[in-house]
Amino acid sequence: MDSLDKEVDHGQQDKRTFNALESRDRILLIEDFEDTVRIIKRLLERNGYQVETAFTINEAKRLLETTILDAIILDINLPDGSGLDFLKDLRKIYPDTPVIMLTAYTELENAVRSLQEGVDDFIPKPFDNSYLIHSIAKAVEKRRLKERLRSSEKFRVLAEMAAGVAHDFNNLLHTMSTHIYLLMKKVHVDADSKGHIEALKTAIDDAAEIVKRLNTLGNPSHNDLQIIDLAALIKDTLLMTRPKWHHGPRRYGKEIELITRLDNDIYVKVNASEIREVFTNLIFNAVEAMPSGGQLILETVCRGGKVVCSIQDTGVGIAPELINRIFDPFFTTKGSGSGLGLSISYAIIEKHGGEMTVKSYPGKGTIFFISLPLVEELSN
Ligand SMILES: Nc1ncnc2c1ncn2[C@@H]1O[C@H](COP(=O)(O)OP(=O)(O)OP(=O)(O)O)[C@@H](O)[C@H]1O
Ligand SMILES: [Mg+2]
After folding, report:
1. Each residue of 122-144: pLDDT tens digit?
2. What is the architecture of the domain spanning 26-148?
3. Is there a contact between 155 and 327 (Cβ–Cβ < 8 Å)?
4. With respect to CATH, is domain 226-373 assigned 3.40.50.360?
């Protein structure tokens, strides 16, 4: 058993004490009547949702600044203002977050107004439990579909642009290195100038590497598909990236604890080196988000013909206003980042017929989900 296997086992033993980040859909309930809050909260939690509550509009505003939500349930009458006016603000700032209004039967006029303001649904009080759950599930699903459509469309346009830029850059870099080569042959350069020329060559090589990555973005190669054991691939990647998540932080007195829950006998048909690149990018990002150390958690779960892998960290998290941009090529918040890791990973997973999504909790951590189709006759 090598040292990584020991660590993987150690992680599995830690399972009971490990406090996973929430990956459930998150609903904000804005309602001032305590009994209603208690009933709806319990109902939603029983149906697998995570619930945040706010008794006033101001409380809700504070929560919205730091929390990414999947849907909002809003009462019409609140102690510090009208839910209808707040709905208008919500629509301007968070046009995509579904809002469901709670209103009494007698307030038909309000219900009509809330529909005019673009509410997703309204639920008359006293409400019917199954209707409420149905309404929330529908709203969350609609939002997810819209998001997926928008991000794949945006991604296609950006990837095409990137491939065009990559093509032009490739020609320029080629011209530059040819001229350097000719210059080196013709002119006598002293040791000092040689150093400058070497630096120039290194910069050109780095630029060529970025161009190569950009090409992957436009068209990740899809030949070389093999049936592989996913747990083995993830363990290989963890071994290869060990200097990054283990030795690197240790050098600065920080500790990243690795926890894995990987099922055996899960088979996927993939280009192994591309999928390894995806895991490498996500592991690097996770480590970079934990400058003071933390936990890196990798898990696989099989669900309806797919395997869902999660890569989770307990790092700084992603601010709500940035989360829609992280898959864009060249988007980076790091001084030395190229901002290509996630966009390339997204492209690779899409080409494999999979999906990549993210949930983040500012100050607590981030969890990326990758789903891939299973080779069912071999898996489990
Ligand atoms: N696990 C994470 N925790 C917090 N922020 C993250 C995480 N993963 C990605 N991000 C954010 O998304 C941005 C884009 O990530 P991406 O991997 O595409 O580029 P990068 O890491 O900045 O550069 P590189 O091209 O070297 O990967 C990051 O700069 C960071 O702001
Ligand atoms: Mg990265």
Report:
1. 888 888 899 999 999 998 888 88
2. 3-Layer(aba) Sandwich (3.40)
3. yes
4. no
